[in-house]
Amino acid sequence: MTKLTILSADDKLAEVRRLYFATTKRTIAEDFARAVQLLKSMNTEDERERATVYMDGLAQMRSDWAKEKAGRPGRPPRPGTAGKSAGAAGKPAGPATAAKVGRQRKVKPSKG
Question: Which pLDDT band, with edges at 50, 70 and 90, does 5 fall under?
Fold first, then answer.
């Protein structure tokens, strides 16, 4: 039989901090869920406020690693396509498209 222990506010904060420093890409989902449970169990706003910086960091790691995971697995992005928006056909804007965008239309002055 396992013995249940009640964590103090300092112990909860220490556990959230430990999760922050120990998390990896592989464990982020479990670690984030555990940190949220610890945060919910904190009794006062002051206790939760002290854990904010670690929670923000865990959330940022989860977001960054999820973006990496969402990319095409096993294929790095093509060189020269970073930051370009997709054209109408879903292809990156090439030099011809970029030149069209940069041109300004000449406006004839109106008479009057």
Answer: confident
- Please state the domain extents for the chain: 9-70
Residue 68 CB burial class (10 angstroms; 0-12, 13-18, ≥19):
exposed
Among left, alpha and beta (phi > 0; psi -120 to 50; other), residue 74 is left
Instruction: Identify which of 44, 47, 55 has the alpha carbon closest to the alpha carbon of residue 17.
Output: 55
**And the tokens for 9?**
């506010």
**pLDDT tens digits for range 70-97:** 775 556 666 765 555 554 444 445 444 4
Question: Is the whole-model pTM more than 0.70?
Answer: no
One DSSP character per residue, 53-84 reads: HHHHHHHHHHHHHHHHHHSPTT-PPPTT-TTP
Do 35 and 55 form a contact (C-beta atoms < 8 A)?
A: yes
